[in-house]
Structures are given as C-alpha cells and as structure tokens.
Design goal:
32% of the residues lie in helices and 23% in strands. It is of the alpha/beta class.
Length: 158
C-alpha cells in the first residue's frame, strides 16, 4: 500500500452523509485549507478527544480559513451519536468502506474488526497535501493546534 506524500494532489473519493447523499472529498472543501480526519470509530477515546479538539477550535479554524471533514466506518446511527455527543459542526461521513479508503489514502486498516486507523491530512487550497499523518494504532494523530500553527506559518510566508 502506498502512502500519500506531501505535494501530491489529494485523491477524490466520497462517503455517505448523514440523512442521505454523499460527502465528496476534497471537492466539498475547495478554496480553503482543508483537514481530512479519518478516525477509528466512536468507541476510540483518542478519536473522541481528537474530534472534540477540532470542534473546540472550530471558530479559530474558520477564522484561519480551514475547513474540516471527518469520516469512519461507523454506521449512520453511531455517527449521529458522535456528532450529537461532541456537538460537531463539521461534516462527518459514515459507513466508509475500509478497504476502499485505505487503498485510496494509504490509511492503515485493522484486520478484525475491520476499521481504519487514525489518519489525518492538511490540504492546501490548491488541493495538494501539505502534511499527512498516518497512525498504525491509537496514538499519533493530527491536532487542531498544529493545523492552526502550520496554516499561520504558511500564510506568513505567502
């Protein structure tokens, strides 16, 4: 499996949206800095902390021109529960096909039960990957504070 590299165009794929339809990634995030979060599932305390952290930073992220989308293999009902529990204001996809997403993004996948390991991407407004964070287990993931710092740095150099 090939991991995505900085400078490479982020690949297009989609996942089911709550209530029907699809979330097209990265098309739904155009013309901004984008964060794509792949999380293990609602059961993972590290994922819960990551999602809650991005929600707490949502105003600062919006001010910095950063949009966030998250996804997991969780079914729709479980994803709705996650959105409600953490009052998530960013799009969260559900029922992602682990093998498909892993083959497109290079995310690690757990064998049994089948789910995706935490993976995060910061994508530039031109659609190119600025930073990819791959975790092979529960630890090591993209955090909102790091995204804000990197975007501020990049804007200062533009």
């Amino acid at each position: 499996m090939t991991r995505l590299q900085n400078g490479q165009a982020f690949p297009a794929f989609d996942v089911p949206a709550i209530g029907g339809g699809r979330i097209s990634i990265p098309q739904s995030l155009k013309e901004s800095y984008d964060v794509v979060l792949i999380y293990r599932g609602a059961w993972c305390p590290y994922c819960q902390a990551q999602l809650a952290g991005f929600q707490r930073a949502s105003e600062k992220l919006a001010e910095a021109g950063v949009k966030v989308v998250a996804l997991s293999v969780d079914n729709e009902a479980t994803t709705v529960g996650t959105i409600e529990k953490f009052k998530l204001s960013f799009p969260v996809g559900h029922s992602a096909e682990a093998d498909k997403v892993a083959s497109i993004t290079g995310a690690y996948a757990n064998e049994s039960p089948r789910y995706l390991q935490a993976t995060g991407f910061l994508v530039a407004p031109d659609g190119k990957i600025l930073n990819a964070v791959y975790s092979s287990g529960p630890l090591g993931r993209l955090v909102a504070e790091d995204v804000l710092g990197m975007v501020a740095y990049l804007k200062s150099k533009a």
